[in-house]
Write a structure and sequence with these properties.
Elements: H1 3-17, H2 20-53, H3 59-97, H4 101-127
Helix pairs in contact: 3-4
């Protein structure tokens, strides 16, 4: 039996023993979670654009902010190159050991993590000026 079929069978068995109210609550959570995620992204975009529109006080502050931005980008570039090797290696191992969907989810999660780090660092640098 495939690993994903075993996991699916276990999940079905757990769902059968849960009370109906709990199953309905879980269904609502699974429906609301993506909606909450999208709303959070919209709010983050609003805050990022609001911070980006703020004006720096002096030319010296702008120069310092640019130097910080360059350093941050060099750091992130190096970190993400190293992370890419790790993620690809783990994804290949997961594909060989488990179902093909698991490495897809792993890589998608890694990409989201990289985007969150990149956007967060950019906004943090903008906010410090």
């Amino acid at each position: 039996m495939e690993t994903s079929n075993i996991s699916h069978s276990i999940l079905k068995a757990i769902c059968r023993i849960l009370p109906k109210e709990v199953r309905q609550t879980l269904a609502h959570i699974l429906t609301l979670a993506p909606i909450a995620g999208v709303l959070a992204l919209v709010f983050v975009a609003y805050l990022a654009f609001h911070i980006a529109r703020q004006d720096s006080v002096t030319e010296r502050m702008k120069d310092i902010a640019e130097a910080i931005r360059e350093g941050v980008m060099a750091y992130l570039s190096r970190q993400y190159r190293t992370l890419a090797v790790f993620v690809i290696t783990v994804a290949i191992l997961l594909m060989l050991a488990l179902d093909y969907r698991i490495p897809i989810a792993y890589v998608a999660g890694s990409i989201c993590s990289v985007l969150a780090g990149f956007i967060g660092m950019r906004v943090a640098v903008l906010a410090n000026v």
